[in-house]
Amino acid sequence: MAGLDAATLADVLRVAGSADFDRWQEQIRRTGGCSDPIRLTGGTKTVDPTTKTVLHSYTTEHEPGGMLRIACGNRRASRCPACAWTYAGDTYHLIRAGLTGDPSKGTPETVRDHPRVFATLTAPSFGPVHNRPGNRPCRCGSRHSEDALELGTPLDPASYDYAGAVLWNNHASELWRYFTIYLRREIARRAGLTQKAAREQSRVSFGKVAEYQKRGAVHFHAVIRFDGPEGPNSPPPTWATLDLLTDAIHAAAVRVAVDVSPAGDEPARTLRWGTQLDVQPIGAFGHGEDITEQAVASYVAKYATKAAETTGTVDRRIGNKEALELLEVPDHPRRLIEACLDLHPLYPDRKLRDWAHMLGFRGHFSTKSRRYSTTLGALRQVRADYRAAQQRESLGLPDPDDVEATTLTLAHWTYAGHGHTLGESWLAANIRRDIQQNRETAREELPALLDLEGAAA
């Protein structure tokens, strides 16, 4: 407990010395060590509707503090590493199911044979920044290390287009929407078909994630896949080739343009994608390919839990410029946030003040087309159903799917707050680290166990 301040240490001793500490630990372990658990009061009652017999009842009256603690579910790793780990895992399985196929998630394994690429669409330049251009020195004359703090910051902040940068972030989701529209048009043009005919013969599915570059500009990584008319369950037509898809992506990105009207001293702008468009085919089995299914799913999952805080900003809304000094936000992200606050009165419908902490970006970080694969909601429901089945088994309750053993569950819950005390927060963080260490140990030992099983066979 070295390094703890007196108040935190006193609270740790209070919590650890309480009579119901073991039950408190059990609750926190069930949340994975959640940093900001939701506290509920209430209970449930399971009854037999025919005989009115109470089969099981639960109340929070006997829980630590009279409350049940459940995971907050926040996707941001900066807010709750435990819940972000779960969110990343769900995103990984969602993306992977659309690449390898997974019948249990509604995607056939034949989807592996469909043309698919991993595309990265970036923002244009808003001014020269410190970088690492291969083996050459930066334009400033230095050779920056990979972890250099100045990477991504402007060579000349006074001439950097901060207004253009945050307006581009703010409209990035619209740029993506127009890109998907033009992509379908470019596919039809290259196939020599009308747009209606192309839609009747094929579909384009995608799953994407947003990532912040060091300079604070958003870019999108997307899995884009050709399907047949029924989605992943049908093969694409013979004309729907990998080369056609790649060419159509390049052509569509060039066509996209979003106009921003002049306001105050701000000129009219036409926002476009940057020239650094990267489109690479995804290998099915990882036999030396640069981009494999595993790598893509892992990459997308990694960035699904990150946001603008990776650039040095904060992960909560900022009401005014004075707060930036108190929060000690670095110069470059501070200037981007100030640009959002200054532009808000000129473009009130864009809600730049509300999204200043996101450097103007107001879109979803992880999205997919309807037929790409399963949904996050479906994955969460599977997990909830599994836990419910475990609990029913431990309590000896009948399966709700058994028509001969119908039960009725009555529940009443009241929100009682969220979060931890100082001591609880420190203990929960240690629980999360223990869980994470156990996971990493199990992952490291798995290959050895598989080798032993193979040798025994």
From TrEMBL:
It holds the Pfam family RepSA. It comes from the Bacteria. This is Replication initiation protein.
